[in-house]
Design a protein that fits this description.
Length: about 350
């Protein structure tokens, strides 16, 4: 059983339903197929708008203001850059290498551009979000930290994960009110070690119960043509053990760190957040959603998405530090002059999971 949200927390609420969302989702899918992917830009906008509009806290909901045209232009810019890079690489390989290094250093700029766009296109109770992160911060977070993590054999993954979340949260604002995450590093390492312990324990139990070893797996992969039945059985067993060991570990880490992040995040004005998701509940939802979606040939995907959104919303709380009416009015007045300052931004979106 999970602990309850604090008594003064106002739970988020997701009011969408699977039947309604299925109608939008299937139209998005069919039109994206018919238009060879062009409509997917508008599909993305309809998806974000639906889930934002149906997420409430204290009777106020979110909204998404981007247009399909903005998203499409952003994608075309990225595609054009990739095509030009491929052509130059084919004609002048040496120059292509230089461009590759340049693109590597351009990645932080793309991240910042993406986060500015997504923030400005999102609002809560008619108050726009904002993002003030710099390219230098993005460079450290997404290039330097991963390099150091690789050099330390990924034992510093919790440090990088916390850095990513800090980069995202601390640089966001609602109107002119800034967000701040003040989570210690210890809980991230605790979640990391618990997840690793799960992998080791379940892996050892699985090996002891099945007699599986990597030498057999390697041999099975090499002899698939000679004995496909036995090879497929061994490979299937490997993936089953992998599924049992790594999938729960991922949800253990996600649940533990999500709670730490939300419970240590504030919004200027004395407002706080809370979260009480649990790894068993997240895992149960994910596994049952996956089973239902696969066995219905993905037709139940909208149901699974609504189910997960409803769970996450109900286990997330907002603890106001004062009158929400006064806060919203103050931020609307402060942000009114810049509310539409980014309406012409291209929708470049690198899809960061933070």
């Amino acid at each position: 059983m999970s602990e309850s949200l604090p008594a003064d927390a106002k739970p988020f609420e997701f009011t969408g339903n699977a039947k309604e969302w299925f109608g939008i989702w299937i139209v998005n899918l069919l039109l994206s197929i018919v238009t060879l992917g062009i409509y997917s830009a508008w599909a993305k906008v309809r998806t974000k708008k639906y889930f934002h509009n149906h997420t409430y806290v204290e009777g106020r909901n979110f909204d998404y203001h981007a247009t399909g045209k903005q998203i499409l232009i952003g994608r075309l810019i990225v595609i054009a850059a990739v095509v030009v890079f491929q052509i130059i690489t084919a004609i002048l390989p040496a120059l292509g290498l230089i461009l590759l290094i340049g693109l590597l250093f351009a990645y932080p700029w793309l991240i910042v551009r993406s986060m500015i766009f997504n923030a400005r296109m999102t609002s809560f109770s008619n108050v726009r979000f904002g993002f003030v992160g710099t390219v230098g911060q993005a460079f450290m977070t997404f290039l330097v930290y991963p390099l150091l993590m690789a050099l330390t054999l990924y034992t510093t993954f919790p440090i990088w994960d916390r850095a990513m979340k800090r980069f995202s949260i601390d640089n966001h604002k609602l109107g002119q009110a800034k967000f701040k995450m003040d989570a210690a590093l210890g809980p991230f390492y605790k979640a990391f070690l618990v997840a690793i312990a799960w992998i080791i324990v379940t892996g050892l139990i699985g090996v002891l119960l099945t007699g599986f070893n990597f030498a057999e797996f390697a041999y099975a992969m090499e002899s698939m043509d000679n004995d496909p039945g036995q090879g497929a059985a061994i490979v299937g067993l490997f993936y089953l053990l992998f599924f049992i060991a790594f999938l729960p570990a991922a949800f253990i880490y996600q649940a533990m760190t999500r709670n730490v992040v939300y419970n240590n995040t504030t919004l200027e004005g004395g407002h706080r957040f809370a979260s009480n998701v649990t790894a068993p509940q997240l895992l149960w939802l994910a596994v049952t959603n996956m089973i239902v979606v696969v066995f219905t040939l993905f037709l139940m995907l909208p149901w699974a998405q609504v189910r997960m959104s409803r769970y996450l919303a109900s286990h997330t709380g907002f603890i106001p530090g004062g009158s929400m009416d006064d806060f919203v009015t103050q931020q609307q007045e402060a942000g009114g002059a810049i509310g539409d300052a980014y309406t012409d931004l291209e929708g470049i979106d690198v899809g960061l999971p933070i």
